[in-house]
Every structure is written in C-alpha cells, then in structure tokens.
Amino acid sequence: MRSVETRLIAELPRLRAYLRRLAARSGGVADADELEQDVLTQALRSRGSYDPSRAIGPWLRTTAFRTFLDHLDRRRRMPRALVEEDPGLAVVSSPDSDDREQVEQLLNRLPDPGQEVLRRFHLREQSVAEIAVALGMPAGTVKSHLHRARRRLAALGAEGWTR
To answer: Fewer beta carbons under 10 A from the terminal one: N or C of the chain?
Structure first.
C-alpha cells in the first residue's frame, strides 16, 4: 500500500486544478498557491485521520474546501488598518463584501437540513455531536447531510458563483 505522502504527490494535479477553480471564483480573494501550501500542510498534519483503504481525493478536497473557507473568513475579519495598507484586501474588508455575498448565495441554494448543518459545522464551528443534539438527529445523519451539502456546494460552485 502506498504511503499518504506518495498518494498526495499523485493527487497534486487534481488538487491544484480544484484550488485554481476555488481561487478564481473568489474574485481574487484567495490565492491558489497559498491555498495549496496550507492544504498540504494541513493534510500532512492530519494524515493520521486519513483512512488508507479509501481514495485520498475526496479527503484532500474536503481539507481544501475547509482551508478555502478559513481563508475567506480570515480575510473578512482582518483589521481595517491592514486593509488600508493593502487596498487589494479591501474586497473582503466587511461582512457585506461581494465574496461573502456570493458564498451566501451558494449556501442559500442548498436544501435544508444540509444548509443548516453546513453553516453550523463550518461557520459556527460546531461539532457533529453538537449539531446532532441541536437539530435532534443522529450523528450519522448529520455526517450524511454534511457530506451531501459539501458535494452540492462544490457542484454549485463549479456552475459559477452567481447563477
């Protein structure tokens, strides 16, 4: 069986293509190269959570999507002083920015309860167990909704941000 590192190297071209698509649709907010470095760093740190009996692509894209959302959130919360020093960051200086609105538009197109589960997990940083209690459903069902919502969100993103 191949090591995680070997599988990561083999998956790099597909990861780069996925990150370029995410970065392109972020309106210049996210940099694909920066995302790639962060994703690979996170993947190597988290390699213990990877099940080698499964394909690495979906696991890596989940890590990539979470990293992308983290980048958007970090830029959105950046202090105004930093934004004024670098006008290129002004795009994401407020919660009402175009990028935030585009992400909201995509999220709003997701059916419930997937939308609610995705918001709670990624935006409110609630655990699967916390979401299960809050929504009154088994943890396995929460995981299923989360997986389907991520897949649907990725498909919507591939169609274009503002369709």
So the answer is: N
Do 131 and 141 contact (CB within 8 A), yes or no? no
Number of domains in the chain: 2
Question: What one-letter code names the amino acid at 146?
Answer: L
38: Cα within 13 Å, side-chain hemisphere? 17
The structure's pTM equals: 0.49
For residues 103-108, average pLDDT = 76
Q: Domain span at residue 144?
A: 109-163
Residue 147 belongs to some domain of the structure = yes
Residue 99 belongs to a domain: no
